[in-house]
């Protein structure tokens, strides 16, 4: 007996629906569709990176709500280095390093000092807002931002080409990172140990694995990824810095991570959906396609989240020991 | 026979603050033996094992492994020497599969990837060699406790164990699972693995040990073997005085019925009827022992009788008064005392102090409070008095109850429940996981109540406990009372057979 109910509730059905919608739209409004999808991918990049940062931290047992701050600080330092040196590669590396250092700070607070992890993350957020607000000077200018690299003939594929194969470097890197992280987390020794540490640290300890090292390493790595997200904002998306420019993306990334059930590919899908909703909203507001008040259209991403969360994503279970500092006896 | 001990401890000493957990401990383990380490809770067994396993470093003393001195400062070193430990609380990751749990920490890799295929083959091979059947792909959380323990043993075998430490492995098992475990242990020693078994269950010790070392208050009291000793002697060595395992009871003076349960039916969380039309009566001065293998409806029945779970059908009378479907406080006020099965979940508020736990059912009465105010002094006086009276080993009335040993936690519950006028005691597994000294004490208290004319309903899966305490024995099987007879008309063997459902 074929179970229609199960099919309607599955994520694949939902993906199929979206696919049909995109095709329909492409045949009627090709230019708009390409613009919306390309923008969706760009919008999703910082969210996907943030979710990757959050999920390896949480998989190893450390909640990271300081991503907003990590991104902001990295965005700021990446921007400054770009202003000083004019070298975008150095600037991106500076952003990544800044993220890793904030990760180190979070790990120190939550693993070594065993401070409540929510407080630790909040400290980083406040620190980042304070520092960037204080040191920010108006009128700094850079020699531009990271430019799209087109992947030759791939670019000429209809619909897919302009959306997927004509992007700036960090967007490509994000797609790669999603796959790498998925492999790392589920197919390697490192991943097995990381997930074990987040579930039952004492068990891992009795097997001779260093719990503190695993947590430090993952939180620092996560910080570096959040740093990349920050670098994306100033060096690839906007090209300059503004106060509070992360605009809640660090927190949305947390939601994206949960939405994606703490898996890299799931989170990427969730990030795409958010990105799609945001770009659709922008398009509807400025494209003049629909004439309902823009406040309602502004609700779109959130409405979509609620519907999808309620209908299509099953119950997710967080790692068992997140938020709990580990103490040896 | 002259053999080199595989493991030799000399003069191990370990202090925790003021407390001397291990004092000059010597211990030998020979190849292929089951060496039982016996002692009460807090005797220092676990500390000693943590020293061997590298979880804590001794302040003094030497460990010899196969004749040469070794430094074991972390579990990795122990594992590399072939020393493995199955902890009392299993060290398994619930959401991982069996195979993942076994290989974690000693993963087989090919390039960067985990080589699951080869790991599976290796584990499969081991599981055939030792006759331990396991489903590699099953998730730990879906396995029974007995199977989880099997996974733990497989973890040790996978690491080519020479010395296997089992910390109270039988505490969580059903009798059938215990038999299986013993079978596995015999298998292991035949293959030359040495086992250290930590326990405080005397009967098991006599059954399985090659040699027995008894510890008390951090010291080794002596080493013996089952052939040269008996249960009474071992108990005396553990506790440091003669322990009564059998009690003299005054004959039952049948009086009026206190607890009267008629046609009780109770459902579990999933709304399945797990207690079917159960009826029994307990008279004043009588102990009704309800025997039965765990999971035959006893837990749900006890919760229902204490007011924590609704009756689906049936009536409850206490001293002739209708009490059906009253809430726990009302039942308590009518003289029902309850020693719950899970003392940490239903019996105590773990982060609270001893003193506060002792007034959990009377805090709203004078002298502990009046109107809005709490009288701390009265609470403390009450607690100090109870600590003395019930010999509770705590650093004071203010210490959190979570820091106490299991036996002392149980004493806190008993001091609270018995410290008022009661007519009926509902004791569910009152001695689970406790050592002989505490068991003896709790049995004495229950008998004392009986002699004072309290009706006692004792639910236990320990046959010995039922046999030595109960005046009348009922057996629960599949949610029904299948037998109800005076205790002196039964032998242990008959009772065991009925419990198994024959």
Query: What is the number of E strands of chain B?
Result: 24
What count of domains describes the coordinates of chain A?
A: 1
Just give the CATH class of chain A: Mainly Alpha
Tell me roughly what share of residues is in helical segments of chain B: 25-40%
- Give the CATH level 1 class of the largest domain in chain B: Alpha Beta
Question: So, CATH architecture of chain A?
Answer: Orthogonal Bundle
> Helicity level of chain A, as a percent range?
over 70%
Could you give me the name of the CATH homologous superfamily of the largest domain in chain B? P-loop containing nucleotide triphosphate hydrolases
Label the structural class of chain B.
Answer: alpha/beta
In total, how many beta strands of chain A? Answer: 2
| Unreliably modeled segments of chain B | none
> Structural class of chain A, please?
mainly alpha
Largest sheet of chain B: 6 strands, mixed
Largest β-sheet summary of chain A: 2 strands, antiparallel
What value does the average pLDDT of chain B take?
88
Spell out the blueprint of helices and strands:
The complex is a heterodimer of chains A (329) and B (502).
Chain A: H1 4-9, H2 11-28, H3 30-59, H4 67-85, H5 88-112, H6 117-135, E1 149-150, H7 160-164, E2 166-167, H8 169-187, H9 189-199, H10 201-206, H11 211-238, H12 249-259, H13 264-287, H14 294-298, H15 300-311
Antiparallel strand pairs in A: 1-2
Chain B: E1 7-16, E2 19-29, E3 34-39, H1 45-52, E4 60-65, E5 68-70, H2 75-80, E6 83-86, H3 98-103, E7 109-110, E8 113-114, H4 116-129, H5 145-158, E9 163-167, H6 175-190, E10 194-199, H7 202-208, E11 211-216, E12 219-224, H8 231-239, E13 257-267, E14 273-283, E15 287-291, H9 298-305, E16 313-318, E17 321-322, H10 328-333, E18 336-339, H11 343-347, H12 354-357, E19 369-370, E20 373-374, H13 376-389, H14 406-418, E21 424-428, H15 436-451, E22 455-459, H16 463-469, E23 472-477, E24 480-486, H17 492-499
Parallel strand pairs in B: 3-10, 3-11, 6-9, 9-10, 15-22, 15-23, 18-21, 21-22
Antiparallel strand pairs in B: 1-2, 1-4, 4-5, 7-8, 11-12, 13-14, 13-16, 16-17, 19-20, 23-24
């Amino acid at each position: 007996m074929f179970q229609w109910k199960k099919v309607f509730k599955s994520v694949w059905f939902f993906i199929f629906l979206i696919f049909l919608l995109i095709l329909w739209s492409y045949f009627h409004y090709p230019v708009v569709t390409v613009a919306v999808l390309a923008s969706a991918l760009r919008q999703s990049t910082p969210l996907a990176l943030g979710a990757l940062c959050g999920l390896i931290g949480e998989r190893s047992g450390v909640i990271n709500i300081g991503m907003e701050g990590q991104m902001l600080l990295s965005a700021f330092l990446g921007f400054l280095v770009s202003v000083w040196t004019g070298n975008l590669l150095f600037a991106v590396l500076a952003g990544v390093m800044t993220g890793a250092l904030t990760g180190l700070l979070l790990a120190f607070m939550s693993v070594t000092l065993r401070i409540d992890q929510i407080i630790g993350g909040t400290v980083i957020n406040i620190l980042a807002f304070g520092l960037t607000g204080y040191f920010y000077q108006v009128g700094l200018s850079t020699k531009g931002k990271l430019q799209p690299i087109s992947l030759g003939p791939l670019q000429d594929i209809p619909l897919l080409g302009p959306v997927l194969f004509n992007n700036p470097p960090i967007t490509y890197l994000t797609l790669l990172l999603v796959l790498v992280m998925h492999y790392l987390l589920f197919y390697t020794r490192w991943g097995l140990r990381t997930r074990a540490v987040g579930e039952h640290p004492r068990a891992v300890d009795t097997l001779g694995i260093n719990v503190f090292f695993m947590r430090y390493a993952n939180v620092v790595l996560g910080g570096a990824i959040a740093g990349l997200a920050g670098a994306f904002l100033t060096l690839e998306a906007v090209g300059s810095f503004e106060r509070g420019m992360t605009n809640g993306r660090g927190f949305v990334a947390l939601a994206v991570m949960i939405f994606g059930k703490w898996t890299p590919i799931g989170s990427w899908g969730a990030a795409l959906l958010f990105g799609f909703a945001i770009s659709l909203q922008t398009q509807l507001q400025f494209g003049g396609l629909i004439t309902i008040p823009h406040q309602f259209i502004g609700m779109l991403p959130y409405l979509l989240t609620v519907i999808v969360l309620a209908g299509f994503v099953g119950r997710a279970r967080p790692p068992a020991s997140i938020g709990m500092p580990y103490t040896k006896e | 026979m002259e053999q080199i001990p595989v493991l030799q401890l000399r003069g191990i000493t370990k202090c925790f603050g003021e407390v001397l957990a291990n004092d000059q401990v010597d211990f030998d383990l020979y190849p292929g033996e089951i060496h039982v380490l016996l002692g009460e809770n807090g005797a220092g067994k676990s500390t000693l094992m943590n020293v061997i396993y590298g979880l804590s470093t001794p302040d003094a003393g030497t460990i010899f492994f196969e004749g040469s001195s070794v430094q074991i400062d972390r579990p990795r070193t122990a594992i590399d020497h072939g020393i493995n430990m199955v902890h009392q609380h299993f060290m398994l990751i619930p959401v991982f599969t069996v195979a993942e749990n076994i290989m974690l920490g000693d993963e087989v890799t090919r390039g960067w990837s985990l080589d699951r295929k080869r790991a599976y083959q290796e584990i499969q091979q081991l599981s055939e060699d030792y006759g331990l059947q396991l489903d590699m792909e099953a998730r730990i959380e879906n396995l029974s406790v007995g199977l989880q323990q099997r996974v733990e043993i497989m973890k040790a075998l996978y690491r080519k164990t020479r010395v296997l430490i089992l910390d109270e492995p039988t505490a969580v098992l059903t009798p059938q699972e215990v038999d299986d475990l013993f079978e596995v242990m015999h298998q292991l020693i035949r293959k030359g693995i040495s086992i250290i078994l930590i326990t405080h269950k005397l009967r098991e010790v006599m059954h399985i040990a090659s040699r027995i070392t008894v510890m008390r208050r951090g010291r080794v009291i002596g080493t013996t073997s089952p052939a040269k000793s008996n249960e009474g002697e071992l108990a005396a060595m553990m506790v440091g005085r003669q322990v009564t395992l059998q009690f003299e009871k005054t004959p039952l003076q049948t009086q009026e019925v206190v607890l009267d349960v008629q046609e009780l039916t109770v459902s579990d969380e999933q709304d399945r009827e797990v207690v079917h039309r159960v009826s029994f009566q307990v008279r004043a001065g009588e102990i009704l022992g309800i025997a039965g293998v765990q999971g035959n409806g006893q837990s749900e029945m006890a919760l229902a009788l204490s007011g924590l779970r609704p009756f689906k059908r049936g009536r409850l009378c206490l001293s002739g008064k209708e009490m059906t479907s009253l809430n726990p406080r009302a039942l308590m006020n009518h003289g029902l005392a309850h020693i719950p099965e899970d003392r940490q979940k239903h019996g105590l508020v773990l982060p609270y102090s001893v003193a506060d736990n002792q007034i959990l059912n009377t805090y709203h009465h004078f002298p502990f409070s009046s109107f809005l105010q709490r009288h701390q002094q009265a609470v403390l006086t009450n607690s100090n008095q109870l600590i003395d009276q019930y010999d509770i080993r705590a650093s004071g009335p203010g210490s959190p109850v979570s820091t106490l040993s299991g036996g002392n936690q149980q004493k806190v519950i008993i001091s609270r429940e018995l410290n008022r006028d009661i007519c009926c005691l509902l004791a569910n597994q009152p001695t689970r996981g406790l050592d002989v000294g505490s068991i003896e004490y709790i049995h004495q208290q229950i008998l004392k109540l009986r002699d004072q004319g309290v009706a006692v309903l004792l639910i236990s899966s320990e046959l010995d406990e039922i046999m030595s305490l109960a005046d009348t024995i009922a057996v629960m099987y599949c949610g029904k009372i299948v037998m109800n007879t005076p205790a002196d008309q039964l032998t242990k063997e008959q009772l065991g057979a009925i419990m198994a459902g024959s």
